[in-house]
Amino acid sequence: MDHIDVKNLSVGINDYVILRSVSFVVNKGQCVGLIGKNGAGKTTLLRAMQGLSPYSGFSNIAKLSYEERARLVAWVPQIHDIVWDVKVNKLLEFTALKFCRNAGHAEETISASLSSTNTVQLAEKNLSALSSGELALVNVARALCQNSDFILMDEPLANLDPRQKSTLILLMKALADQNKGIIFTSHDMPAVETACDRVIALKHGALLFDETHRIKFTDARNREIFD
Ligand SMILES: Nc1ncnc2c1ncn2[C@@H]1O[C@H](COP(=O)(O)OP(=O)(O)OP(=O)(O)O)[C@@H](O)[C@H]1O
Ligand SMILES: [Mg+2]
Q1: Fewer CB atoms inside 10 A, N or C side of the chain?
Q2: Strand partners, 7
Q3: Domains delineated in the chain
Q4: How does pLDDT run across 133-178, given as a tens digit for each residue?
Q5: What are the residues whose beta carbon lies below 5 Å from ligand 2 (ion)?
Q6: How far, in Å, CA of 167 to CA of 133, rounded?
Q7: Verdict on whether the full-model pTM lies above 0.70
Q8: Ligand nearest to the CA of 77
Q9: Which of the listed residues 10, 17, 37, 42 should we mutate to test ligand 1's pocket, taking the one with most ligand atoms within 8 A of CB?
Q10: Closest CA to 128 of 90, 91, 86, 79
Q11: Ligand 1: does its nearest atom lie under 6 Å from the Cβ of 13?
């Protein structure tokens, strides 16, 4: 699949509207920043477009079976609730063996995902023993093991130290250059400026703007988004 197509996606709970008729198409090869103030609807959008929570409207990835969707789209949620008592290597192996052609390909994929997320030194650690930033990076490594066309990430930079943040920004750009489609939410505007060739902004659950070029977050622009 070469694009994600979302049309008139809305989410409401009783009479409360959380997402208002949001539409966009994201192609492979794009690195898209999804921004907006707290409560704007970013997490709701990422979940609803994958069919992980109730919605109305259309998304071409929402109705796929879990397995079909996982081959196309890897999901890195903000809250990492993996507390299994297994080693990082094992988690990556579960994923890679499912999505890779054979054991050799799985081994290469695991090794590449550990090195590109700078987590090689964590491979033998138990998941339950990781710090929050380490766990966030391991979840990105796990997503890479799906070999999917698209990766959706909810605030992947939030718990990272400056060095690891740079690693992940460079990785997202590199993945887009390798023709993967990336959508990630962030409140880190300099990171979004550096990483993204497109920015989608939400305000009060509706699309505020969708700009397909590198954007600068001037004071006026930040007021438009965050006030
Ligand atoms: N299950 C729910 N029941 C009621 N309200 C909800 C529910 N889920 C989300 N909301 C509301 O919908 C709005 C959007 O929430 P969402 O988590 O999508 O925001 P967000 O843009 O991801 O914010 P943040 O930057 O803080 O992560 C918020 O006002 C939130 O309180
Ligand atoms: Mg959120």
Answers
A1: C
A2: 58
A3: 3-226 (3.40.50.300)
A4: 999 999 999 999 999 999 999 999 999 999 999 999 999 999 999 9
A5: 42-43
A6: 13
A7: yes
A8: 2
A9: 42
A10: 86
A11: yes
